[in-house]
Design a protein that fits this description.
Shape of chain A: globular
Order of helices and strands of chain A: HHHHEEHHHHHHHHHHHHHHHHHEE
Order of helices and strands of chain B: HHHHHHHHH
CATH class of the domain at 1-90 in chain B: Mainly Alpha
Strand content of chain A: under 5%
Number of strands of chain B: 0
CATH architecture of the domain at 1-90 in chain B: Up-down Bundle
Strand order of the largest sheet of chain A: 1-2
Structural class of chain A: mainly alpha
CATH topology of the domain at 1-90 in chain B: Four Helix Bundle (Hemerythrin (Met), subunit A)
Largest sheet of chain A: 2 strands, antiparallel
Distance between the termini of chain B: 67 Å
Radius of gyration of chain A: 24 Å
Structural class of chain B: mainly alpha
Oligomer: heterodimer
Distance between the termini of chain A: 68 Å
Helix content of chain B: over 70%
Radius of gyration of chain B: 23 Å
Largest sheet of chain B: none
CATH superfamily of the domain at 1-90 in chain B: NADH-ubiquinone/plastoquinone oxidoreductase chain 6, subunit NuoJ
Number of helices of chain B: 9
Number of helices of chain A: 21
Strand content of chain B: under 5%
């Protein structure tokens, strides 16, 4: 087998030219395997050393990612027969996952001691999940994307059930696993249909083939065929699979249970990195693979073919329901982890708005919001982890009572994160929401403007439940007297996250410049005022007929 | 590729028996029956692959699923107590059955609708059918009634180590993770203490 590998000229050429493109992933993988091995050699009291090894691995991977980014130059680089591509979009998302995992591991070290489950596999699995996520961000082939998604998902299923002696953790893992496997099946069904119609799993080839397939006069065998329903159906199946992964309503049922039952540090990791990775894949498939299904699919009056709505409409409806339902359901929760699960559902709705807007501002908002969300949501969960102490899980709203007296710094940081989640200036959350909503309003489409208004209103509703936290912390009297002990890694993680949330809120230029580069890849669209949507590629539209003036 | 004559008959027989067996898998009360129906479903699907001239996939389907995975299933059924379900104490269907049926029907109808409008793409054209029939005798003489070895396996192997080398390697990591996870979740505390390095 090895002889075959070495004699095959193609593979050696490929490895020489493109092996540096996957260097961050390879290094991280090596560290993950090393963590597995070293864990076995360490006695129980020193298992926490594996955490530091993993952190070193994440940092090494981050440095190598920066080298890849610097060596990339101005153009994107594809590798491994078009299986992956390294462009600013991939690099920014990978950075997000690495930072998210780094903070999540810092939050976990003390927490696992409290739970009495300090073991090295935990950290190794987080690293494996991050490897999967990184391939999800850079994969441009449905095959790579799907296998990377499964790598991430399986690692996270195991991590959710990590507290084996905890009934809730077991239940959460089971629910998450069953629904996750089902959604992967749905996604795969959509993928197989797209492959059947376009003859390729490569997103670039699919994007090239789709306009022909959905054209009103598509005649594969000399006879006009209407493939649009079949294409739309496979698009809907793929979207449904991805909605499951990002926990958008009506596919959100698993999220509150899984978030509540999982170890809090894994809840934090799931709610940011896993969600960001799913969104990265969502963006890749829909913005790079199916851009021509966004707008209205042109009908044909002569053969009585009606015009069909594209995925912008589907995503718009889903994001509207997600924002409304996520925020309303969060209002009545008393368990903080459950409340934050619903809040995270509503944030998935906000993030979808960036894809729907379809212009540069929207895409920038999509990336920047996920980046900021990673920091602020990890921060909030970090504060909840800090409340975990002997005999107290710390996930009830009452556990926050009178926190101001017990741990003033923790309270201040929690306040920053909560205000940022609510989108109040001068925190970073405001910048993210500003870009998302501005992207929608820029389109000038009345329906999208209404969607933006709805999102702003619901964002105001969300302040109510974020302020409930603040009321409990500042106003309510203490209900129990146990002191809150914070470990120094947790303090460092929280302080860093809070600092960045404030810094990005006040000086956002650096991050905006970075995310704007990432957002230049996908095709932008121009919506017309009458609701009809027309594609406006940035390249001179030679093949595209100029849109007919709308009937007045 | 178009199916003609007996091939079409075989396809419909296999397709419908796959569906029926699939329904029986979820509706059988005894776990062993479910497993056996699942074997039948998988064999049917393998036959469908042969019909599509994908001999390698058919072989893998039989070897891996029917041979490996199903044996594991039967082992698990043997080890795990499933008597409660078998004695009709447990309700087989929850209240979600009717919504599920409705959803399935909706999906089926929309599939039918979508396929219907795309039908001509799958229908043989007169010119192409003629070309196929012209090609067919040449092909049959070349293949000599199945004596020639199919290059299917070779092609799969080549693309696995060339175009799909990267996903293939990611899949190996995936299997490692699944193994670590299985050990992690199944290992008891007693075993953990046993293998702990002594301080």
């Amino acid at each position: 087998m090895f002889a075959f590998l070495q004699t095959s000229p193609d593979l050696s050429v490929i490895l020489q030219q493109t092996k540096e493109l996957i260097m961050p992933e390879v290094l991280l993988l090596l560290f993950a395997c090393a963590a597995l091995v070293i864990d076995v050699l360490l006695p129980r009291q020193q298992k926490f050393l594996v955490a530091w090894l993993s952190i070193v691995g994440l940092l090494v991977s981050l440095v190598s990612l920066i080298f890849v980014y610097k060596g990339m130059g101005s153009s994107a680089k594809a590798g491994f027969f078009g299986m992956i591509v390294i462009d600013p979009y991939a690099v920014v998302f990978k950075m997000m996952f690495l930072i998210g995992a780094l903070l999540a591991i810092l939050l976990s070290i003390k927490y696992l001691d409290e739970e009495g489950e300090q073991r090295g596999e935990y950290y190794a699995l987080i690293l494996f999940a991050v490897v999967g996520m990184m391939f999800m961000a850079s994969g441009v082939d449905l095959l790579t994307l799907f296998i990377a998604l499964e790598l991430m998902a399986i690692s996270v299923y195991i991590l959710v059930g990590y507290l084996r002696r905890d009934q809730r953790s077991n239940e959460a893992a089971m629910k998450y696993f069953l629904l996750g496997a089902f959604s992967s099946g749905v996604l795969l069904y959509g993928i197989s249909m797209v492959y059947g119609m376009t003859g390729s799993t490569n997103l670039a080839d699919i994007a090239k083939a789709l306009p022909v397939v959905i054209g009103a006069n598509y005649q594969p065998l000399g006879q006009a065929v209407d493939m649009r329903y079949l294409v739309l159906m496979s698009m809907i199946l793929m979207a449904a699979g991805m909605f499951f992964k990002v926990a958008a309503v009506p596919f959100h049922m698993w999220a509150p249970d899984a978030y509540e039952g999982a170890p809090t540090s894994i809840t934090a990791f799931m709610s940011v990195a896993v969600k960001a990775a799913s969104f990265a894949m969502f963006g890749r498939i829909f913005l790079y693979g199916l851009p021509d299904l966004r707008g209205t699919l042109e009908g044909n009056a002569t053969s009585h073919l009606p015009a069909l709505p594209g995925w912008a409409v589907l995503l718009g409806v889903v994001s509207a329901i997600t924002i409304v339902w996520g925020n309303l359901a969060a209002l009545t929760q008393t368990n903080t982890k459950r409340l934050l699960a619903y809040s995270s559902i509503s944030h998935a709705g906000y993030t979808l708005l960036g894809i729907i807007a379809g212009n540069q501002t929207g895409y920038t908002g999509f990336v920047i919001y996920l980046f900021i969300y990673t920091l602020m949501n990890l921060g909030v969960f970090g504060c909840i982890i800090a409340l975990r102490r002997r005999g107290i899980i710390g996930d009830r709203m009452e556990d926050l009572n009178g926190l101001m007296k017990k741990a003033p710094w923790l309270t201040v940081m929690m306040t920053i994160f909560l205000l940022s989640l609510g989108g109040i200036p001068p925190t970073a959350g405001f910048i993210g929401k500003f870009y998302l909503f501005a992207g929608l309003i820029e389109t000038g489409n009345p329906w999208l403007v209404r969607l933006a208004i709805l999102a702003v209103l619901m964002s105001a509703v969300s302040l109510y439940y974020y302020l409930r936290f603040i009321r409990a912390m500042y106003i309510e009297a203490e209900t129990e007297m146990q002191p809150v002990m914070q470990s120094w890694p947790l303090r460092i993680a929280l302080a860093t996250a809070a600092l960045f949330v404030l810094l990005i809120g006040i000086f956002p230029q650096q991050l905006i410049a970075l995310t704007q580069k990432a957002a230049t890849g996908p095709k932008t669209y121009v919506y017309q005022n009458d609701g009809a949507e027309h594609a406006a590629p940035k390249s001179p539209p030679q093949s595209m007929p100029s849109p007919a003036p709308p009937p007045r | 590729m178009q199916l003609h004559g007996w091939e079409a008959v075989l396809f419909y027989v296999l397709a419908f028996s796959t569906l029926i067996m699939g329904v029986l898998v979820v509706s059988a009360r005894l776990a062993v029956h479910s497993a056996l129906f699942l074997i039948s479903t998988l064999v049917n699907i393998a036959l469908l692959f042969i019909l599509l001239r994908a001999e390698f996939v058919a072989g893998v389907q039989i070897l891996v699923y029917v041979g490996g995975v199903m044996v594991l299933f039967l082992f698990v059924i043997m080890l795990v107590q499933t008597r409660a379900e078998e004695e009709a104490k447990v309700k087989l269907y929850t209240g979600q059955m009717w919504p599920a049926v409705m959803l399935t029907l909706l999906l089926a109808v929309s599939f039918f609708f979508a396929m219907n409008s795309a039908q001509p793409a799958f229908r043989p054209q007169p010119s192409e059918a003629a070309a196929q029939s012209k090609e067919a005798p040449a092909e049959s003489t070349k293949s000599g009634a199945g004596s020639q070895i199919s290059t299917d396996t070779q092609e799969v192997g080549q693309s696995l180590y060339k175009e799909a080398a990267l996903p293939f390697e990611i899949a190996s990591v995936l299997l490692l993770v699944a193994m670590v996870g299985a050990v992690l979740l199944a290992r008891g505390t007693k075993q953990e203490k046993l293998y702990e390095p002594s301080e």
